Amino acid sequence: MVKKFQEKFLKLAIEAKALQFGQYVLKSGRNSPYFFNASAFLEHGSLKSLSEILHEKVNDIGLKFDMVFGPAYKGIFLASLLANEMSVNKNVPVCFNRKELKDHGEGGALVGAKPNGKVLIVDDVLSSGLAISESIKILEPFDVDVVGALVTLNRQERGQESEKMASEELKDKGIPIYEVISLNDIVNSSNIISKKNLSLMNEYRNTYRGLDV
């Protein structure tokens, strides 16, 4: 059953044009009937609503962590939004990575707080799981416990190493995935998505969905 904060997110994503329907070619080469671009929230004036939704998800699952890590680039603002929303009750440090190393100023590959304690990775979309896997490698040299990854959308597609969903592959490695919304949730939202788009998305899901085991 789709929860209220998930419906709120889906409506917000459509209104902000973060979630669009049509014909799109993904990095994987797959033709997709939908496309998600979290950066659209940045020009829509919906950041407060988005930060509240992220916080609601964290509260819904009772997740405890000391700081957040946002993979460059979209994970940076999402992690910052969550940390800011939670700052009313506690300080949540933020760390993110650079895609290009800096050899002057503070230098290094990371910006913000030094990774420490229980870390939650926050990113926009889970497709193959590559971005999350790269984040884990970045955090490996530090004394941290990665408690999981929170994504706004889980496409529930096959991962990099098997026929399993990327989220299942990561779970097997000890990294649970928490999503605000999944492809299943979108397909089950017949009161929000048109029948035509639902049909196309359902067909896409049946073709590319990974195994949920």
What does this structure look like?
This protein has a single domain (4-208), classed as 3-Layer(aba) Sandwich (Rossmann fold). The chain is 36% helix and 27% strand. The protein has helices spanning 4-15, 47-61, 74-86, 130-139, 166-172, 183-187, 195-208, and strands spanning 19-25, 31-36, 67-70, 94-102, 108-112, 117-126, 144-154, 177-182. The strands form two sheets. The protein has a six-stranded mixed sheet with strand order 5-4-3-6-7-8, sandwiched between helices. It has a two-stranded antiparallel sheet with strand order 1-2. Helix 1 runs antiparallel to helix 2. It is globular, with a radius of gyration of 17 Å. The two termini are 20 Å apart.
Defining traits:
7 helices; alpha/beta; 213 residues; six-stranded mixed β-sheet; single chain; Rossmann fold
| Low-confidence blocks of residues | none
The assigned structural class equals: alpha/beta
Please count the helical segments. Answer: 7
What's the SSE pattern? HEEHEHEEEHEHEHH
- Sheet with the most strands, sense and barrel status: 6 strands, mixed
Calculate the mean pLDDT score and round it: 93
